Amino acid sequence: MTDASLKKALGHIRVLDLTRVLAGPWCAQNLADLGADVIKIERPDTGDDTRHWGPPYLKDAEGRDTAEAAYYLAANRGKRSVTLDIATPEGQEIIRQLARVSDVVLENYKVGQLKKYGLDYASLRREKPDLIYCSITGFGQTGPYAQRAGYDFIVQGMGGFMSLTGERDDLPGGGPQKAGVAISDLMTGMYSTIAVMAALTHRDRTGEGQYIDMALLDVQVAMLANMNTNYLASGNAPRRWGNAHPNIVPYQTFATSDGHIIVAVGNDGQYRRFVETGGRPELATDDRFATNPMRVRHRDTLVPLLAEMVKTKSRQEWIDALEMAGVPCGPINNLDDVFENPQVEARGLRIDLPHPHGGTVKLVGSPMKMSVTPPQYEMPPPLLGEHTAEVLREVLGKSEEEIAVLTGKRII
Predict the structure, then answer these.
(1) What is the pTM of this model?
(2) 154-169 confidence digits (pLDDT tens)
(3) Does domain 3-223+345-408 have CATH number 3.40.50.10540?
(4) Would you call 185 a catalytic residue per the annotation?
(5) Which of 33, 185, 287, 300 is the catalytic position?
(6) Where are the coiled-coil regions (predicted)?
(7) Pair 41, 123: CB distance under 8 Å
């Protein structure tokens, strides 16, 4: 192991990535950020579906659109792209060869599809007994829905998230609402990363590989957290509260004279300072509002009074005053605001990587901050098939003649 690889938490790990779209690639990108050698297998000519999910597209040095959609760029940095037709016997054999020299296989094919090619866990385990194999599907490998295709939007609804998200039914605009990003995909990618890391640790201690069965629906249900336990404890299904909180008041958005703020009062002392800052101290001494349980009970009376109070000042006036008073608050930023925020800048969340099309690609860095083995950004999201010959040559030891034959047969 080289000194450089020792500076990467996963510098000793190779990942064979057979995933596409978002959940699987998100997991693989996490592993790549931490130093793993991630080999992304893509279909010849078309590649990952998200390469074409645009506009917008990456622009080259002259400002012209390239073939790289921004969606694809979000989840694929740090990987090596190999184009390979796995529907052919030759392509399947190359996958088996790569699996023998890999630690982890990630895949998100339909249940049973890879078994037809001899590329399922049971088959590849015979090639490499300590292999860690992670399958990501909509509904998992078992159960009555296992054969269904899973899509993030559908799973957000099916898993209960949309019953909790959106404005109250009795208010204007009320009704179920999906999240602004594909949360079940992204959280499945995160849970998959954790599961792979746990399996690697187990393998390092025992020499034993294992199979990981990840499902979007499982993750969507699991991540409802306290909403699940609220229901399990009470037997009452939680309802939508919009930007309010079912258990805490006030914990929501308010309109100021020129925008909106979030006020997140977590205890009675913060509430008292909030209304004192707004010039309404009597709202803290009123028995209906003095404690959080009473504020929750009298929410519909209190919130209009607070809304009227907040409208008397500008957004920045409130933020400055509440921060000085020790009351948790914040603005609702658009992405212009986010990437100009001094805290976001100080934390290095915006990164720029050189790109083969010329110029740079603008990306968002990993939030993982590690003192010895921090994430490293050595490669931008790869062009389709950019590393095919390199991987076949360096990882599998194939000759230029063998690579030329595979190219001629359109296997790669």
Answers:
(1) 0.91
(2) 999 999 999 999 998 8
(3) yes
(4) yes
(5) 185
(6) none
(7) no
